[in-house]
């Protein structure tokens, strides 16, 4: 089939709905505040807005004149914590209600290591257009894109609620609800804001965007600055199997995806991550491991295959693989020269792990929970 014929019928090839309404102040850059006539230095206003630990009574510590100007010109509300579910492993799933009543989910994952860090998994859309067979979010379909202000807002809300106060201890992964590259303009604007030296100043080495393989988005992102690190969700080793699990493969097959990754201009010490969800009985054979190594080719040198056990949920008939099957798959890849990690899924007991994020409906019955 001609890929262009397929593209005309796919939801990810069409712009996702956008939210109407006032511009969020959390999605504005310093120079834009200045250009809009702010009664104060744009850098100062931006810096206070982007540092949630500087807030007083839920709002940045700014003069009354500036606060009134912001209220007159922008949406000043952060996403509201509608539900908060603490996992036994220390992670927390937050359900956030947006200004129009739509809900998204983010996951806060502390790591108690020598230098304690927090990984924050954030969403880029309400729902998702990609329709991956193993993912709960895909059952929603696409409801709308998040604005840059809403993306930044979910980060600030999570940090206000759960910390940390040190920006250098934050790692961001765009692995929540939605396909980030289906909303690339707003996602990249949010990255510019989160990376800005007058704000949180999160290094792009600590920001990863994960895609299901939206090749035009990969090729655009490759030349944007600042540029995050890239993770690609592969999840099968033949076009037939991948198309069954991930409809995006019908438009951009494995060879085309590999071509896009081969053209990615790698920065100093930059690594690509190939994510592979192991689905019991579907893609976890020794032959799959061999085909994956072959597809990686020269990417086996220094880049990472990140294996993820299928996280079961009510919307999928698939099962996670047996532990012995995972071990055999890892051993086979390592024997072929691949650098392999196995992701320890966080928040599985509160449906906060990879592929489990879903919330049906708008303004559904939500409960405020204590974290």
What does it look like?
The chain folds into two domains: 26-76, no CATH class; 77-350, Alpha-Beta Barrel (TIM Barrel). With 371 residues, it is an alpha/beta fold. The protein has helices spanning 3-7, 30-35, 42-49, 64-73, 148-162, 184-195, 215-221, 239-245, 254-262, 286-296, 323-335; strands spanning 55-56, 59-60, 80-86, 92-97, 103-111, 117-121, 125-127, 142-145, 170-174, 207-211, 229-233, 273-278, 304-309, 339-343. The longest helix has 15 residues, at 148-162. A hairpin with a 5-residue loop joins strand 4 (92-97) and strand 5 (103-111). It contains eleven helices and 14 strands. The strands form three sheets. Strands 3-4-5-6-9-10-11-12-13-14 form a ten-stranded mixed beta sheet, covered by helices on one side.
Write a brief structural summary:
The protein is an alpha/beta fold and 371 residues long.
Q: Estimate the strand proportion.
A: 15-25%
Unreliable stretches (pLDDT < 50, length at least 5) are 1-8, 360-370
User: What does the average pLDDT come to?
Assistant: 88
Query: What would the principal axes of the Cα set say about the shape?
Result: elongated
Number of helices: 11
Structural class: alpha/beta
Radius of gyration: 21 Å
Q: Would you report the number of β strands?
A: 14
The CATH C-level name of the largest domain is: Alpha Beta
CATH architecture of the largest domain: Alpha-Beta Barrel
Tell me the span between the first and last alpha carbons.
Answer: 51 Å
CATH superfamily of the largest domain: Aldolase class I
Binned, the helix content reads 25-40%
How are the strands of the largest sheet arranged? Answer: 3-4-5-6-9-10-11-12-13-14
Order of H and E elements: HHHEEHEEEEEEHEHEHEHHEHEHE
The biggest sheet amounts to: 10 strands, mixed
CATH topology of the largest domain: the name is TIM Barrel
**Please, how many domains?**
2
């Amino acid at each position: 089939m001609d890929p262009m014929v397929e593209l005309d019928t796919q939801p990810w090839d069409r712009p996702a709905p956008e939210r109407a309404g006032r511009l969020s102040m959390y999605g504005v850059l310093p120079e834009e505040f200045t250009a809009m006539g702010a009664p104060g230095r744009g850098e100062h206003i931006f810096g206070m807005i982007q540092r949630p630990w500087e807030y007083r009574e839920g709002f940045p510590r700014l003069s009354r004149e500036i606060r009134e100007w912001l209220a007159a010109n922008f949406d000043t509300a952060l996403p509201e914590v509608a539900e908060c579910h603490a996992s036994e492993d220390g992670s927390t799933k937050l359900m956030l209600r947006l200004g129009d009543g739509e809900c998204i989910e983010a996951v806060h994952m502390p790591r108690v290591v020598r230098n304690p860090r927090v990984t924050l998994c954030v969403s880029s859309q309400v729902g998702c257009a990609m329709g991956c067979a193993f993912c709960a979010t895909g059952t929603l379909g696409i409801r709308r894109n998040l604005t840059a202000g809403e993306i930044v807002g979910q980060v600030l809300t999570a940090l206000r609620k759960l910390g940390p106060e040190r920006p250098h201890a934050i790692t961001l992964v765009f692995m929540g609800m939605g396909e980030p590259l289906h909303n690339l303009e707003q996602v990249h604007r949010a990255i510019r804001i989160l990376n800005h030296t007058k704000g949180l100043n999160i290094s792009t080495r600590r920001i990863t965007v994960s895609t299901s393989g939206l090749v035009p988005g990969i090729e655009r992102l490759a030349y944007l600055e600042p540029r995050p690190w890239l993770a690609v969700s592969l999840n099968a080793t033949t076009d037939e199997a991948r198309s069954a699990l991930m409809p995006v493969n019908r438009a951009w097959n494995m060879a085309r995806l590999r071509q896009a990754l081969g053209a990615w201009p790698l920065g100093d010490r930059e690594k690509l991550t190939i994510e592979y969800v192991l689905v019991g009985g579907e893609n976890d054979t020794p032959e799959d491991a061999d085909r994956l190594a072959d597809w990686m080719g020269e990417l086996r040198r220094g880049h990472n295959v990140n294996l993820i056990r299928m996280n079961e949920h009510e919307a999928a008939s698939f099962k996670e693989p047996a532990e012995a099957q995972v071990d055999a798959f890892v051993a086979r890849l390592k024997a072929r020269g691949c650098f392999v990690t196995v992701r320890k899924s966080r928040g599985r007991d509160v449906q906060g792990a990879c592929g489990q994020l879903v919330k049906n409906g708008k303004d559904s019955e939500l409960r405020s929970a204590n974290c």
